[in-house]
Design a protein that fits this description.
- The protein is of the alpha+beta class and 179 residues long.
- It has two domains: 69 residues, no CATH class; 97 residues, Methane Monooxygenase Hydroxylase, Chain G, domain 1 (Up-down Bundle).
- 45% of the residues lie in helices and 21% in strands.
- The chain is built from five helices and four strands; from the N terminus they run ββββααααα.
- The protein has a four-stranded antiparallel sheet.
- A hairpin with a 6-residue loop joins strand 2 and strand 3.
- Helix 1 crosses helix 2, helix 1 runs parallel beside helix 3 and helix 4 packs antiparallel against helix 5.
- It holds the Pfam family LON_substr_bdg.
């Protein structure tokens, strides 16, 4: 397993200043690398290890942007907080509902459900957001949120959109099968 903080890019895609990236990100472990035929493409599975923030930018002389980072500590949460429990329960219920409607989602859930602690609301929210088709800004919003209840709420909103999308897909599938 390796760790990465830099991605291979074409020169014109190199990030050379902070306007090209978010200030909060994730330090990730490479979990799996799949090379496709003729090495024309690769698929990388990254597992986030911790949230990070950019502290300082180092002179890069028009090369790749080099920064100093620090880990963002996950705040403590009140295990007895009823809203946190309620949001967590709703996320688990939504995940189960989506699994019933979408067989591809089921495979994804089986793989990851053994690797996460659903009793940790921060991890549950991150997992829930990661399995959605939310756009980059929505996912970034979850990543940047430090308040436990707010992060759970944002993740649940993404899952709710995903459930609606799954319902529409299921309806389309049923219409096609009827013809």
């Amino acid at each position: 397993m390796g760790f990465t903080g830099m991605e291979a890019q074409k020169d014109e895609d190199l990030v050379t200043d902070l306007t090209g990236i978010h200030h909060v990100g994730s330090y990730a472990r490479i979990d799996n690398l799949i090379n496709f035929e003729n090495n024309s493409a690769s698929q990388l599975l990254l597992v986030g290890q911790r949230r990070i923030t950019i502290d300082d930018v180092h002179d890069s002389d028009n090369g790749p942007l080099r920064v100093s980072i620090s880990a963002i500590e996950t705040p403590l949460f009140d295990k007895k907080n009823q809203m946190i429990k309620a949001y967590s329960n709703e996320i688990v219920a939504a995940l189960r509902e989506i699994v019933k409607m979408n067989p591809l989602f089921k495979e994804h859930m089986q793989y990851y459900s053994q690797r996460i602690d659903i009793h940790n609301p921060y991890i549950l929210a991150d997992f829930a957001a990661s399995v959605t088709t939310g756009d980059g800004e929505e996912l970034q919003s979850v990543l940047e949120e430090l308040d436990c209840e707010s992060r759970l709420k944002k993740a649940l909103e993404l899952l709710t959109k995903e459930m609606e999308l799954s319902r529409v897909q299921q309806s389309i599938k049923e219409q096609v099968e009827e013809k």
